[in-house]
Amino acid sequence: MPRESAAEPTEPTVSAVRPASALPPGRPAEQLLAELRDLRAADAPTRGGRTFAYVYDAGLPDLDELSEAAYGVFTTVNGLDPTVFPSVARLENDVVGAVSAILGVPGAQGSFTSGGTESILLAVKAARDHARSARGVTRPQLVLPSTAHAAFHKAAHYLGLEPVVVRVDPLTFRADAPAVANAITERTALVVASAPSYAHGVLDPVAEIAAAAEARGVLCHVDACIGGWFLPFLARVGLPIEPFGLSVPGVTSISVDLHKYGYAHKGASVVLYRDAELRRHQYFAYAGWPGYPVVNPTVQGTKSGGLLAQAWAVLHHLGHDGYTALARRVALAADQLLPGLRSLDGIRVLGDPAGSLIAFTVHSSAGTPDLGLVLHLADEMRERGWYLQPQLSCDGLPPNLHLTLTPATSDRVEPLLADLAEALTAARACEPVIVDPALVELGATLDPDTLTPEDVAGFLAFAGLDGAGGLPTRAAPVLALLDALPPRLKERMLTEFVGSLFRV
């Protein structure tokens, strides 16, 4: 029998999973749902017409029920492979076909995506790969107005394009078409226009920009994520809307979010191309591994068919007449809100809003935009139960408050204006927002890439964003500090702050 030996010392073992206490014992379903409802109580309301950003409320209660039921039917369907789940191809063809009927041309093809960012990412990829194969461009550039959505910069960062940013007209906030044309070079893969821009809600001169791109043999994408499923129905109401779809010569792709004015639940979007050959460049295919051959039309592989099904159901439920009626309600709200805003002392509406997005700044007694008043007004309105989105100054464009009108706001304009007048008086009575000049001077000398975590933590603590006390009750001092920082330092601070919210 083997000789008994002394036990060998062993290294302490490290569990590959978190302690069992991190995942509690199972609990009853109703208890879990109650906890989720309690968590939602601290969020901004998504229904009722008092949140003027992030949510798109049709004001039709049965629409939510339809979306949820349609999602439930397809929740377990995997959109990865339409040969196994042919219903996915049928639904997607229906949804893309509906968008093409409004904004496309014969032969147009597209894809259903998870949202505007994915649609834009795919359009930029398609343009990059097209420029490489058709024109031999190896260091592609992306020409875009300064008001183009940040998603284009995200796509350029991910996909290796150089953004070429062109300033917009400081009075109209529209893209400067001649300046955009002058920025096009042999390296340009894609030119961008917005219909409308998110920040100010104004429609870029799409036809002029697209013509300039076409003259140089360059693709042109129209970001109609927010206006693509609203402006055409506004035109049906009788309002003059400049064409911006694929029927405009030179426009080669367009993005349209159905979870905005299509009133589907998030996320639901469509990216549409002039033809299938152009769409092919957005696809990813790989057969050089031992698993199944991979063909991904979009960024995602596995995805629930539920999002597609609920978008399909809402589109077919509302139809042309339903969307036209909802567009009319938004137009009526805008017709009431715009003169009401302009009647308030010190408020200036920015640009000429295309219909559903409105941005306004607040002037000081000297007649210039006042950052402190803008930010205090946002805080005062939030205390009164309204969420208006603060937007900071940028490259000479003034700080402002952004409102997204939906059908649910059509009967909220009068109380909104009443509270806005009261909040404006309260904002003017607040202590001025003062940012420490020494901190601003220091910020101008810092390199965001060399800051240590301790440096960043110090900045965040100074701003009251160290995470110890949760989110500040008033955002004005924090946003004023951010407004004063250089853009790249601002980005680093925001990254660290958001990261601090997602720590386990």
Automatic annotation (TrEMBL):
Its cofactor is pyridoxal 5'-phosphate. Residues 1-26 are annotated as: Disordered. It is found in: Endoplasmic reticulum membrane. Keywords: Aminotransferase, Endoplasmic reticulum, Lipid metabolism, Lyase, Membrane, Pyridoxal phosphate, Sphingolipid metabolism, Transferase, Transmembrane, Transmembrane helix. GO terms for biological process: carboxylic acid metabolic process; sphingolipid metabolic process. Its main location: endoplasmic reticulum. Pathway: Lipid metabolism; sphingolipid metabolism; Sphingolipid metabolism. It is a single-pass membrane protein. One of its GO terms (molecular function) is aromatic-L-amino-acid decarboxylase activity. The modification N6-(pyridoxal phosphate)lysine is found at residue 260. One of its GO terms (cellular component) is membrane. PANTHER family: PTHR42735, SPHINGOSINE-1-PHOSPHATE LYASE 1. Belongs to the group II decarboxylase family. Sphingosine-1-phosphate lyase subfamily. This is Aspartate aminotransferase family protein. The lineage of its organism: Bacteria, Bacillati, Actinomycetota, Actinomycetes, Kitasatosporales.
